[in-house]
Amino acid sequence: MGRKWNNIKEKKASKDKNTSRIYAKFGREIYVAAKQGEPSPESNQALKFVLERAKTYSVPKHIIDRAIDKAKGGGEENFDELRYEGFGPSGSMVIVDTLTNNVNRTAADVRMTFGKNGGNMGTNGSASYMFDHTAVLGVENKSVDEVFELMMEQDLDVRDVVDEDGAVIIYAEPDQFHAVQEALTKAGVEDFTVAELAMLPQNELTLSDEDLETFEKLIDALEDLEDVQNVYHNVQLDDE
């Protein structure tokens, strides 16, 4: 895995200095998960997963409670999860995951953002075949050897365990997310630096300075869209 997950996360967080955008995105995701099942993480795995992710981003309790209360109250908003794929300069690949209550608006916004920022929208599958759906979990106060040994003891065949700037990052199959997290929790891990399901590129692309500047503007513009939850790409950025 060539990407440094902690650096990616820090870059996203620093871009949203007041973190309001991150909180809004989580609020929407928590509402949808709570509405689709029971509004309790004990009986709703989807909600439990979102809340675990929210914890790693320090989402305040009042944001979480408000979203769950809205779902309990029978909120009328309905959201669709949609994925868009496209290309930036020099054949760079981009995946955009959205949560929207207006499909036509979102599709138009994403297409226009690609077009205005040196990219173009592709068809379903045109980029995602070059990415792997991956569970990513990060812990501190453990060594790579300790985590590897724990994974073997639990008969968990993870993809990789690496040290990234003082944190141990575990990459695993998506369906192993909860098993890996449970094994780490039982081993004394209380907090995770990251707990995500992500699309990671199989290979990374290095762009020229000019193309990289254009590409970063494209990514920033996509992430600024209200309905966009996550943006994944295959470009090596300076601070990754």
UniProtKB/TrEMBL annotation:
Any one GO molecular function term: DNA binding
Main location: cytoplasm
UniProt keyword annotation of Transcription regulation present: yes
Matching InterPro entries: Integrase-like_N, TACO1_YebC-like_2nd/3rd_dom, TACO1_YebC_N, Transcrip_reg_TACO1-like, Transcrip_reg_TACO1-like_dom3, Transcrip_reg_TACO1_YeeN, YebC-like
GO biological process: regulation of DNA-templated transcription
Matching SUPFAM superfamilies: YebC-like
Pfam families: TACO1_YebC_N, Transcrip_reg
Domain TACO1/YebC-like second and third: 80-235
A GO CC term attached to the entry: cytosol
Ranges where the TACO1/YebC-like N-terminal domain occurs: 3-74
Keywords: Cytoplasm, DNA-binding, Transcription, Transcription regulation
Origin superkingdom: Bacteria
Localization of this protein: Cytoplasm
Residues spanning the signal sequence: none
Similarity-based family: Belongs to the TACO1 family. YeeN subfamily.
Protein name, entry field: Probable transcriptional regulatory protein HHA03_17510
Organism per entry: Halolactibacillus halophilus
